[in-house]
Design goal:
Largest sheet of chain B: 7 strands, mixed
Oligomer: heterodimer
Helix content of chain B: under 10%
Largest interface: A-B, 18 and 16 residues
Shape of chain B: globular
Strand content of chain A: over 45%
Number of strands of chain A: 11
Number of helices of chain B: 0
Strand content of chain B: over 45%
Largest sheet of chain A: 6 strands, mixed
Helix content of chain A: under 10%
Structural class of chain A: mainly beta
Order of helices and strands of chain B: EEEEEEEEEEE
């Protein structure tokens, strides 16, 4: 089993729709969780951290379910510019600074 | 701040040649990470440094790969000899100490093609 698993997609979504995708992680000792965004042929960039109580940043909402060991990302009122690959990331439990990366979910927003 | 700088941005080389990738982290960051990304395997951590010292190189695929960080502002990843299966995008990332944040800042990557 992969340490961080994501549906690779692609998710094809019409502009303005709401889309959600999940990620599961295997190590219950992980404490920090993130969503990174990677545009085509670009580097990954932090989209948002994921907090235990859930958090929102504009149209983006991230949630954590520790019991089931999954993280979700919800995008409301999707824009064409949201088209990208979304990487789910968790910290490596035995390291203060190492991250474990999911393979990413590809999102395509269609006009 | 200029961000993480990598060079070259693209490298095409023949099998058997030596390849050297370069990275300049963000000033003041004390962690530096080298990653490799392919369609098949996604983003893989190769090695990371803390205060110029290699901490974990368990991700380095084999002895053909080596990495150095002679000072706080420069790191290299060398492949010798290169093979076609080394073709990938190689990212360097850095992070700072403040706030307990895990956020890593990535350079634009070096797209390596070995023919």
């Amino acid at each position: 089993r992969k340490e961080v698993e994501q549906d690779p997609g692609p998710f094809n979504v019409p502009e303005g729709a709401t889309v959600a995708f999940n990620c599961t992680y295997s190590n219950s000792a992980s404490q920090s969780f993130f969503w990174y965004r990677q545009d085509c042929r670009k580097e990954p960039k932090l989209l948002m951290s994921v907090y235990s109580s859930g958090n929102e940043d504009g149209r983006f909402t991230a949630q954590l379910n520790r019991a089931s060991q999954y993280i979700s990302l919800l995008i409301r009122d999707s824009k064409l510019s949201d088209s990208a690959t979304y990487l789910c990331v968790v910290n490596a439990p035995n390291s203060n600074y190492q991250l474990i990366w999911g393979a990413g979910t590809k999102l395509i927003i269609k006009p | 701040d200029a961000g993480v700088i990598q060079s070259p941005r693209h490298e095409v080389t023949e099998m058997g040649q030596e390849v050297t990738l370069r990275c300049k982290p963000i000033s003041g960051h004390d962690y530096l990470f080298w990653y490799r990304q392919t369609m098949m395997r996604g983003l893989e951590l190769l090695i990371y440094f803390n205060n110029n010292v290699p901490i974990d190189d368990s991700g380095m695929p084999e002895d053909r790969f080596s990495a150095k960080m002679p000072n706080a502002s420069f790191s290299t990843l060398k492949i010798q000899p290169s093979e076609p299966r080394d073709s990938a995008v190689y990212f360097c990332a850095s992070r700072g100490l403040g706030g307990g944040s895990y956020e890593q800042y990535f350079g634009p990557g070096t797209r390596l093609t070995v023919t």
